[in-house]
Amino acid sequence: MKTILVTTGATVTFKSLLDYVVSEKFIGYLLEKQPVKLIVQYGNETDSNSNNVSKEYFNQGLKAIIESLDLSVSNEFNDKSTTAFKSSKYQLELEVFGFSHNISSYIEESDLVISHAGTGSIIDVLQLKKPLVVVVNDSLMHNHQLQVAQKLSDQNCLLMCEASQLNTDVLTQLCEKVFNHHQFTDLKKPDGKVVEGIIASCF
């Protein structure tokens, strides 16, 4: 079973990426990869009333695929922070959560990670030597994330696209490149602190 982890960050809801992972285009691609497990970390943004904005937004799209894929809850974890689903129609499993203090365990079990462009998340994946496709949120102001992702893409440490390209086939093409055994270059360990070293090398 192929396992794909989509991680969108915790503080700002990455709406365009969440929309994409529940889209007909991406779900259709997943069904071509059966058996497959999709894990989605949808974010932990809260409003002034402590409502989980990320969860509320993601649930809107989730309802549609629960119906179309005939998904049912297979396990709700004790703290109810993570919910797992199985399909009665397809060889597809889905696991969703807002935030995890142990994201490395999800990364380790994944055959492919699709991530937002936060430098910490990128480094976590690359240090565990997992295939990584980064989606840059190009709607952000002062987007240093694009420069970091581009630098690491130029070094063949990861593949990347921008959120504005999600209405095309670019992301599924990059995923297919990974599953066709694209050979990545391991991340070089910079001197000193890892994150600071990576950022410094990009400017």
Automatic annotation (TrEMBL):
Keywords noted in UniProt: Endoplasmic reticulum, Glycosyltransferase, Transferase
UniProt-listed Enzyme Commission number(s): 2.4.1.141
Record field: catalytic activity: an N-acetyl-alpha-D-glucosaminyl-diphospho-di-trans,poly-cis-dolichol + UDP-N-acetyl-alpha-D-glucosamine = an N,N'-diacetylchitobiosyl-diphospho-di-trans,poly-cis-dolichol + UDP + H(+)
GO cellular component terms attached to this protein's record: cytoplasmic side of Golgi membrane; cytosol; UDP-N-acetylglucosamine transferase complex
Domain spans labelled Glycosyl transferase family 28 C-terminal: 82-184
Cellular compartments annotated: Endoplasmic reticulum
Any one GO molecular function term: N-acetylglucosaminyldiphosphodolichol N-acetylglucosaminyltransferase activity
Any one GO biological process: dolichol-linked oligosaccharide biosynthetic process
Enzyme class: transferase
Gene3D superfamilies assigned: Glycogen Phosphorylase B
Domain of life where this protein originates: Eukaryota
Function field: Involved in protein N-glycosylation. Essential for the second step of the dolichol-linked oligosaccharide pathway.
Subunit structure: Heterodimer with ALG14 to form a functional enzyme.
Homology family: Belongs to the glycosyltransferase 28 family.
Record protein name field: UDP-N-acetylglucosamine transferase subunit ALG13
